[in-house]
Amino acid sequence: MEISAEVGTSNRLDWLDALRGWAILGVLLVHVQMFICTLQNPLLAEITLCGQFGVQLFFIISALTISITYDSHIAKYGLNTRSSISWFVKRFFRIAPLYYVAIAVQLLFSTVSKIHHPDAPFAPGLTAIFSNILFVHTWVPAGNNYVVPGGWSVGVEMFFYLLVPVIWNIKDPRNRAKCLALGIPVMLGLTLWVSHAHVGSWKVPNDTYFYFWFPTQYGVLAIGLIYYFKYYKLPDNMTLVKVVIRVGAACLALITGVACSFWLNLNAGLAPICMGTCFGLLIPFIRLHHPRLIVNGLMIYVGRLSYSIYLANMFVVMSLNYLLHEFFHIKVPQTAFPLCYLSFVTILCIVATATKKHIEDPMIDIGHALSSRMIQMEKRPESFCSTRG
Fold first, then answer.
1. What whole-number distance in Å separates Cα of residue 330 and Cα of residue 6?
2. What is the pLDDT of residues 156-201, one digit of tens each?
């Protein structure tokens, strides 16, 4: 859920923004089906559930964006502690302010819900709240996905940001790719082992803590980084045969991921790496050829609002759910699903446009200003010394 404005080019990487748009539309598809208009047709219901893998697409995009921006940053300012901290300051002000607003809104929702429904669970505990404030909630089961609905992915991303300077300290990009690849089976093994130790089963159920936490999702981010280190800067040599092979392999990875998750429930803990493989195979083609069906003005616009949409969507969908089902007692027929979905997306785009303008963008500007000030301080050590003496 990162932005690409810092890539250092006069024109943003529109294809990445467009993919963010598709990713967030997938996530919204699931929530409309769950809370507003339930589909009775099992096949259609399972197709909409595939939208949950929009989060894994976000992770691939984030890995690529961070790679581009961090390379650009260290090319200007070098690879050192101050430079890394100044880069992280920008990341923090990109993510944290709006997330803190989401925490406050969710606590307000929980309080109001408790007043109107005494049997409803109350606000999360202090441990859960502070784990989200500090962005360590990927390691805290009580705070992982409860304080902010969907906030688990933000916890994964923020922990990933901390690892970026460590990864770049490996000088040779090829060695970085090798280390990242070796980490995939290690992290998957950790997920399965810890799941077995705690719940007595190697199978990781979908939408549970062990599905959401960082080791399970690590492989998706690693695939994005590996693609960047090994292939991103290479010339275009994609022949028709290679495209067909990639698409076939991507379809196989997609089917496997769905089977591991909600289709056959084989082991949802393996689904993220399958979906990461699927997206990793398809993204090079999209990047090189920008098919208009995928990369177009509308999807670019939605993609640039995706972070605000992601954080706002559960509050909006739960409000609509209350109005339709509890206040007006309306049972929405499944034939109205397309209209419900379009209306939901429209409302969220309006909300997100406002939050981006009044919260996201001003905070991003502050983060850039603070980051630049840190770099300027490093460039003028003699001025600092003169004030001391």
1. 46
2. 999 999 999 999 999 999 999 999 999 999 999 999 999 999 988 9
| HEC readout, 11-58 | CCCHHHHHHHHHHHHHHHHHHHHHHCCCCCCHHHHHHHHHHHHHHHHH
Structure tokens belonging to residue 102: 């989401």
Residue 260 domain-assigned (yes or no):
yes
Angle at CA of residue 132, ends 130 and 136, nearest 5°: 95
Is 284 domain-assigned?
yes
Domain, as residue range, for 106: 14-379
- Residue 167 parent element (H or E): helix 152-168
Angle at 149 between CA 147 and CA 155, to 5 degrees: 70
List pLDDT tens digits, range 355-379. 999 999 999 999 999 999 988 876 5
For residue 146, give Cα distances in angstroms to 87, 128, 142, 151, 208.
Answer: 29, 8, 7, 8, 11
Q: What contacts 250, CB < 8 A, 6 or more positions away?
A: 277, 278, 279, 281, 282
In a domain, 347, yes or no: yes
Number of domains in the chain: 1
Sequence letter at residue 217: Q
